[in-house]
Design goal:
Length: 288
């Protein structure tokens, strides 16, 4: 039994050895193959520089996409409606009802002067010339550039002045358009000159527009075009000349154009200033 088992064991051992040998060669060939494939894939590995480059490219593309998206948002969601198109909301809430109820009586308010928002000469002989803006702006080391809110009225045979008002006050809806002129020889603030041909006659036209004027783009060509005759008048130096009386609802824009009447030789040239509202003004009278 023992010898038999010995006999049977020997070939078994041999077999095991062979198997073990085979296994060893298989192992080594697999390892060889693995080593070979590792060697083959090594050139495909990215160098740190390439990785950095790809990272930068990804970041740059993400940034560009974000910028493009932000620009899209600016143009759509955040697009500011042009200032001239904004609604002029009524801040006098409930006052209509209050006065209609008859429970209160309004105080008596003297006429208030309303200065123009825009007073801009335009030139027929230079139709593309923009109206001068900021002619009297000053530089001060303390305040920087200051705009003294001066308005230039200049009308001659080839120059008209476009003037825009906005009536804002409640219950002051009876308006009188006037031309206020200094006396002859009166010195104006800021060395401005006052000129008026005697007997100059002027026509006033009312523009049919509810748009705010943009002085920076205003010229003879771009001024409001649909005009209707409004009034004619002859001013005198040192006086307040009445031009016309009209109803002026709160919150409305009135755009006038002043021109020489009938090509008669005429000239008016003056500046409003910090202390004097020389030029065209509106006096608003109480209506409540
Ligand atoms: C009217 O005034 C403008 C601007 O100062 C000037 O260029 C033009 O020659 C004047 N026109 C007349 C007819 O005097
Ligand atoms: C007015 O003119 C005088 C003399 O020409 C000058 O000294 C003065 O600074 C001027 N004033 C203004 C406000 O321009
Ligand atoms: C406006 O009037 C005040 C007070 O009368 C004066 O002090 C000031 O100098 C005047 N402004 C100008 C620009 O002349």
């Amino acid at each position: 039994m023992d010898s038999l088992s010995q006999d049977q064991q020997e070939p078994l051992l041999d077999y095991e050895l062979v198997v073990a040998d085979n296994l060893k060669t298989e192992d080594s060939s697999q390892a060889e193959r693995a080593r070979g494939s590792r060697r083959a894939s090594r050139p495909k590995l990215l160098s740190p520089l390439t990785c950095l480059f790809i990272l930068c490219a990804v970041i740059a593309v993400t940034d560009l996409c974000a910028l493009a998206y932000m620009q899209h948002l600016w143009k759509t969601s955040y697009a500011a409606p042009g200032l001239p198109d904004l609604e002029f909301a009524d801040p006098y809430i409930g006052l209509d009802d209050l006065y209609r109820s008859g429970l209160v009586h309004s105080p008596s308010i003297p006429p208030i002067v309303l200065a123009p928002r825009v007073c801009a000469p335009v030139f027929r002989d230079q139709p593309d010339r923009l109206t001068p803006v900021g002619t009297h702006d000053m530089w001060s080391d303390t305040w920087g550039t200051t705009s003294p809110n001066e308005r230039h009225l200049h009308v001659n045979a080839t120059t008209n002045t476009v003037i825009q008002f906005r009536t804002i006050d409640y219950g002051m809806e009876d308006c009188v358009l006037t031309l206020d002129l200094p006396a002859r020889g009166q010195a104006l603030e800021g060395n401005s000159t006052f000129l008026l041909y005697p007997a100059s006659q002027f026509d006033v036209f009312l523009a049919d527009t509810s748009k705010m004027l943009k002085p920076k783009t205003l010229s003879w060509r771009t001024k409001p075009s649909s005009l209707s005759f409004f009034a004619t008048f002859t001013p005198h130096a040192g006086e307040r000349t009445f031009i016309s009386r009209f109803r002026c609802p709160r919150g409305s824009l009135f755009t006038f154009e002043f021109a020489c009447a009938d090509q008669s030789p005429c000239l008016v040239h003056t500046w409003s200033s910090q202390n004097y509202t020389w030029g065209v003004n509106i006096y608003q009278h109480q209506t409540v």
